[in-house]
Amino acid sequence: MGRDKLKQLGIDLPLFPTTTVGSFPKPDYLLQARAGFLKGEVSLEKLRDLEKKATEFWIGVQEELGIDVVVDGEQYRGDMVAFFAEHLSGFEIGGLVRSYGNRYYRKPIIVSEVEWPGPITVEWWRFAQSLTSKPVKGMLTGPYTIMDWSFNEYYPDRKSACFALAREIRKEVEALIEAGAKIIQIDEPATSVRPEELDMVVESMHIVTDGLPAYFITHICYGDFESIYPSMLRIPVDNFDLEMSNSNLDLLNLFRKYPFSADISFGVIDVHSHKIEDLETVKERIRSALEVLPKENVWIDPDCGLKTRTIDETIAKLKVMLQAVREFRG
What we know:
TIM Barrel
């Protein structure tokens, strides 16, 4: 399955490849600089230097821990949707709305035709890849989630907006592949918000990925998976990165009933908790996964992005995850 495709792309990963979903917490110096930039007190050049410094730090952490497929940590991004809306033409950025918990983001508004102006994430991917010999994931937000988390004041309906975004995001995917990215993650956390629109998610992902030489991952979280599984397996990606631990692994009951037919990045770390998991807890989660899923298809990572945790919490949680994986490999 996916392992063969990775080898065709020149990537040979060990059993239970380890990765993270994408985001890491920003160091205090970067948070202060971002706030200062918004106030006009910090130059863009200074901000970029600090974003690169933070990216180097997180690449170093991943190297030291032994993570197999690394991420840039998204130190140059704020919200996962607003970031792309700020770079695609056709958007205005609206006021603050609540995302979840005490997290807020500025909701984008589609006001004219959406167009890709040129590479958005490519230089950051190149910079991160220059710091490590391990594969770095390209990281994008998918068209359905951008559409769903935005106001649409231009296109006649949700599908038109979604497919227009898909055509432009495909151009960013093509640019990442041209730069050398071989593993690309397209986040679609809104997939299960409206189960009746699952076909729209499937079709838009076809627009983004069809015919392109990369190993594709989609990250889905927050959702009512019972309403879209197993139909969601029609989404044309190689690997589904799923939040598992925060819901006590209850998705495994669905997988017993309807076998999972793709690779899976299985979340064994609850990123919504400050508590550091003990080794036996993580090992039991992996053990439970292997009772249902073929070991060759299982990747191991946290449930979601780690940006809501502190740096110390993030490193401690990942250390436990990596120790558990080493024991299973042994």
